[in-house]
């Protein structure tokens, strides 16, 4: 079991892994902090859980996982810890968000405020970055690399 975990942490020591995981983490962290802590005008944990479970009718476990992936996943990706796991979970999250909230608004983001909501192009970019991190791992300066080298 220990060796299976270590194998999933093995990563290329390249810049692509570093750049992709930092891009994902830095972009997702403010969203997670809004949902968990109420920073940057967010509703905080209670408000977000209430919105997800009552207004969007999501099961509480799914609502909780969205908050956890966006906050703890972002921090873990920034640190390069369990990069492949958090990348896979972020892909699942992005697909879920697209189909639950953005598909009806088309491809393009709402740059000029002339449509009812945001399109899904942002999530396509995030899925692409997550696929890079899923394939390459955490890259340079990742906690995954440090853990593997200690074994």
Automatic annotation (TrEMBL):
Subcellular location field: Cell membrane
Record family assignment: Belongs to the DoxX family.
Entry keyword annotation includes Glycoprotein: no
InterPro entries the record matches: DoxX (IPR032808), DoxX-like_oxidoreductase (IPR051907)
UniProt keyword annotation of Transmembrane helix present: yes
Topology versus the membrane: Multi-pass membrane protein
Keywords: Cell membrane, Membrane, Transmembrane, Transmembrane helix
Main localisation: membrane
A family per Pfam: DoxX
Highest taxon in the source lineage: Bacteria
Membrane-spanning intervals of the chain: 21-40, 60-78, 85-103, 123-143
Identification of the protein by name: DoxX family protein
